[in-house]
UniProtKB/TrEMBL annotation, chains A, B:
Name the record gives this protein: FAD-binding protein
Record-linked PROSITE patterns: FAD_PCMH (PS51387)
Key words, A-Z: FAD, Flavoprotein, Oxidoreductase
InterPro entries referenced in this protein's UniProt entry, alphabetically: FAD-bd_oxidored_4_C, FAD-bd_PCMH, FAD-bd_PCMH-like_sf, FAD-bd_PCMH_sub1, FAD-bd_PCMH_sub2, FAD-linked_Oxase-like_C, FAD-linked_OxidoTrans_Type4, Oxid_FAD_bind_N
Pfam family, one: FAD_binding_4
Residue intervals of the FAD-binding PCMH-type domain: 43-222
Origin species: Pontibacter anaerobius
Cofactor: FAD
């Protein structure tokens, strides 16, 4: 790939499109800083210019210019990504969607909402809850991440186990293609058998096929009641095994989160919080049941307890106040931050069929023993989606850089053997790119590269990601 | 497109691949007959040969041969399609998946099943119900249609309103590409952020991108209880309006079906069945609530009655036995057959945001008045998916062939204006192809054609469909 650098003429053209105050150059080093990284490890890449367009029309003009002039463009939401997707590794333009931050409409008659991509996920969730509506996808970063980024990475979150991931809530999108053309991908309907599914092709494409400028989501009625419980297990593999058993018993919890003992201990320290734990408890499940009828939830909880009796569990903590529920969720949402604040780390976003979780977990520990790395595991066990945080600790730089990737390959090969894959909700982006051919064969890669070329013939949009 | 005819050498090659008894030639006119049509109007196209391969390997060899020799291949499931997708309009090969009819595995630990594409939908549903599991998609033709066809057309059915359509249950597929290459499209997981979504690109592609040879579905626990009620409305637009109001009240029924008076009357005659109807009732809603707790369903039913009180409804019939529930569902499932047995017809599969249904229905009647056609409307009102059966009655052939398409265009333009599109679950296939540019713009069509060319560079797989 041969790209052109940003010339003064290019800067002038961009300034003409978005206005002086929405163009950032490296001279403004401090303002520029946050556009040089996302939440992936400690990676830093400085773009040549950051542009903050106001709308699809401006984005279209930027893309036309960059397309004509072979200038790479890296789209960026809130920069909370965990695979390096928003990093300007080929320099060029960072195109930030932060000014496209309006909730355009909440259509209560149709249970739909139209939003711009720069709306913060939690802001949107709270806006629809006010109308008694529910937008379930809730990545841990929901307090800061953008809806557009959630779509680009096919984000999930704890409630995906009952409600599905971000992709399951998008009906239609307006996108600007790398050529500058603006189009919608589908229609504002719950069912669509009219041509190929461009909407789902765009979802999860990590900003490589187009820039999302508007999204139509479906909403559902908000469930008014929930129960939250924290279940300690003496054996971590039993915690994983219990997950499948609860589903087999016919119960679909609204969350089913797995946390190793270390994950909880590190997070308690990080948050200065206390969770009572017996010395012999290896792991916990955070289980949430939701619905509209509290009596029914208590009945379901009874059935969950019956399943749990088959396992070696400690004392179950059932949250008895909203405050306690919030605390338990705060604990879970902060595991990532806590682990990462402790050490240099790499996070793997493995996913397998849910009953294979115990096999995966055992495999990770066994591979870790052979490669001499420590891992802290947690994640969305109900979906079979295990986040593996590999902490550097006292591993040498040499081993970290050269030996560890071989261990990661073994983990990913195990995932694929188990019917799973290498990313459940974080995307491939930059950091998993080197492992992509463990998950995808040559035929799949050829088709994907062909799609990329069709949408982006000059390869200017988010180059160097995924493939 | 320039295709080659089937030569004796081609027949010999095919015979070598699938065996003599699985090759049908026009000489076997009677056996060939059912491969000349599907359930779309009275369309007939005779293929040059029908092949019934046993597995993906044989299909791969057939595709390699046809790819090399520019021979068109039309894949076919059970032939229950409603848009002409399985018709061999360019002659060549009909490739029937009828022998790929095994349920390979029902994985109760992971709530997944692996099936071949030729399994009948209802057979699969019943097999999983035996294990306490649920595969919700239930097109009206479920007693005869194939799962592979359901995926190819992105089929829905009444329960889509709560549970989603076929596409929402597929995790992974094995497909044979037009070039003969065999690949899986994804992984057997509930979440996948690893490369572009080839699975959802294949779903709904109407057999134009590849031939599905294996499918991994997700399953959910089977809801053990349900309530079924038939609600008569004095104004059909009020029936449509009530649909949205029930959702806004926070209830998600497992079915919410709309039937015009004519639809019920014609079907009662067709089935020799009786449904009590007052003279002034214009339309009915068939509403089903499901779950695991009958008390809760009765509570939900009370809330449905409260919503219905706002409307001018007649006496609500609540099914008080399994037999009566079955009868009501038999009534609904047979509307299509009943209407079609009455007259030459065309069926349109319109879909709009659900609150726009009353506007669509009024528009259809108004357009019908201007173009002098009668329509019988029914369908999945909860999804905004209205099937419009236009009956020929005493319309002249001249008007039917030349004037009516202009009226259909007006209906489709109205759908698109309302945020909807021209097919919700039947596909574009052959018969809606002429209307595709009402729903899709030039950019979308260019991308879709590009995808087609990428998968099928010689254009041999199901040529002449969609575009």
């Amino acid at each position: 790939m041969k790209f052109n650098p940003i010339t003064p003429e290019a800067v002038a053209a961009f300034t003409n499109i978005v206005g002086q105050e929405h163009v950032l150059l490296p001279a403004a080093a401090e303002d520029m800083l946050r556009y040089t990284h996302d939440e992936t490890e400690d990676l830093r890449y400085e773009p040549e210019v950051v542009l903050k367009p106001a709308n699809a029309a401006e984005i279209s003009r930027i893309m036309q210019y960059c397309h004509e002039n072979y200038i790479p463009v890296t789209p960026r939401g809130a920069g909370t990504g965990l695979s390096g997707g928003a990093l300007a590794i080929h320099k060029g333009v960072i195109l930030s969607t932060e000014r496209l931050n309006k909730i355009v409409a909440i259509d209560e008659r149709n249970l739909q909402a139209t939003v711009e991509p720069g709306v913060i996920t939690q802001v949107f969730q709270e806006a629809v809850i006010e109308r008694g509506l529910f937008y379930p996808p809730d990545p841990s970063s929901r307090g800061s991440c953008f809806l557009g980024g959630n779509l680009s990475e096919s984000s999930g979150g704890p409630r995906a186990v009952k409600y599905g991931v971000t992709k399951d809530y998008v009906l239609n999108m307006e996108v600007v293609l790398p050529t500058g053309e603006i189009t919608w991908t589908g229609a504002n309907v719950l069912k669509n058998a009219t041509g190929y599914n461009l909407t789902q092709l765009m979802v999860g494409s990590e900003g490589t096929l187009g820039i999302i400028t508007k999204i139509v989501f479906k909403l559902i009625p908000y469930p008014t009641q929930n129960l939250v419980m924290l279940v300690p297990f003496r054996k971590e593999e039993e915690a994983c095994a219990a997950v499948s058993q609860i589903f087999i018993a016919g119960i679909v919890p609204s969350a089913m989160e797995f946390m190793e003992r270390d994950a909880i201990e590190w997070t308690c320290r990080y948050l200065s919080m206390e969770v009572p734990m017996a010395a012999d408890e290896e792991a916990h499940l955070l289980i949430e049941l939701d619905g509209n009828d509290l009596d029914l939830l208590f009945k379901d909880a009874e059935r969950v307890y019956e399943v749990l009796e088959q396992f070696n569990v400690g004392e179950i903590l059932v949250a008895d106040s909203e405050k306690q529920k919030e605390d338990l969720w705060r604990l879970r949402r902060n595991v990532g931050h806590a682990v990462k604040s402790n050490s240099i780390y790499k996070e793997e976003d493995t996913v397998v069929p849910r009953a294979e979780l115990p096999v995966l977990l055992r495999g990770v520990k066994e591979i870790g023993a052979r490669y001499n790395f420590k891992s802290v595991c947690y994640g969305h066990a109900g979906d079979g989606n295990l986040h593996i945080n590999i902490v550097k600790g006292d591993m040498s730089d040499e081993d970290w850089n050269n030996k560890l990737p071989e261990g990661i390959k073994e983990i990913f090969r195990l995932c694929v053997e188990l019917g799973g894959t290498i990313s459940g909700e974080h995307g491939i982006g930059l950091v998993q790119r080197q492992y992509i051919n463990i998950a995808l064969n040559e035929v799949q890669l050829r088709l994907m590269r062909g799609i990329k070329e069709l949408f982006d013939p000059k390869g200017i949009l988010n180059p160097g990601k995924i493939f």
